[in-house]
Specification:
By secondary structure, this protein is an alpha+beta fold. It is built from three helices and five strands. It has one domain: HIT-like (HIT family, subunit A), CATH 3.30.428.10.
């Protein structure tokens, strides 16, 4: 079994683990976080397994750009753009990354402070 087969997010994107889907296409899968930190909290992932932003190679840069573009479209579709939203990518354990598959948190529906954390 490869590392990808054991990855939680790979298994969610493939349908092996059920999730409340928010969006999907051939490259991207988005689903509602099971432990939401805001009224809207969606995780957006590439279907391709890339452990973190530090592990991107070649065409991965374009793919991650597509993930960000889809996140903006999802925010628009959910009418988060009027009041604003936050898009977060944690890279590495010290930054709070707990699943090592690139993912962005789309958070909205409440005010956010700065600095975070």
């Amino acid at each position: 079994m490869s590392t990808n087969d054991r990855c939680l997010f790979c298994r969610i994107a493939s349908g092996d683990i059920p999730a409340r889907k928010a969006y999907e296409d051939d490259e991207i899968y988005a689903f509602h976080d099971i432990n939401p930190q805001a009224p809207t909290h969606i995780l957006i992932i590439p279907r391709k397994h890339i452990p973190s932003l530090d592990d991107m190679e070649g065409a991965d840069v374009q793919l991650v750009g597509t993930v960000v573009a889809r996140a903006a479209q999802i925010a628009h579709d959910l009418q988060l753009t009027a009041d604003g939203y936050r898009l977060v990518a944690n890279t590495g354990a010290a930054a709070g990354q707990t699943v090592f598959h690139i993912h962005f948190h789309l958070l909205g529906g409440r005010n956010f402070g700065w600095p975070p954390g």
